Structure formats: structure tokens, C-alpha cells
Amino acid sequence: MISRPKKEFKPENSENGQHKLVSMRQAGEVLGVSEWTVRTLCCKGALPCVRVGRLLKVDMADLLAFIARNKQSNAPAAMSVTAHGL
Asked: Where does the pLDDT of residue 44 fall: very low under 50, low under 70, confident under 90, or very high at 90 and above?
């Protein structure tokens, strides 16, 4: 049997050439939500996830990108003090 040299996978967006995968619970802790909310976000396609056997994991780069995409620069008008007449 001839052995072939293995090609090393080095993704651009990862640290030290490796993806950092976190559990649903850990992703929830980062976002400040429950594990089930993270699962719902994954099922809806809002947050990419990776299946490892029967487990679902979230790439930390995807989690940080999700946070960046969903940041709000200003408070909604309904939340402002002037909207309530105060």
C-alpha cells in the first residue's frame, strides 16, 4: 500500500490553523441565552453549526460573526426617552 502525504488544512479565519468549536451550552453562555435558543438559531439558519457525530457544535468564528451582524448601533426609537414623553 502506497502512503500519500496528507495535505494540511489551514483555514484563513482560525487561530493556529484550527477551528475552535464550542458546544451549544458554551455558545449560549457567550450570547447570554439558553442552549435551546442557540439550537433554534441553528435550525433557522441564522447561526451556522457543525454536526460532530450526534453533537452540534458552533465555530467560534461564526459565533463572533453572528454577534457582529446583529449589533445595533442605536437604541430603537420606542426605547428612547423622548418617545415616552419624558
From this structure: very high
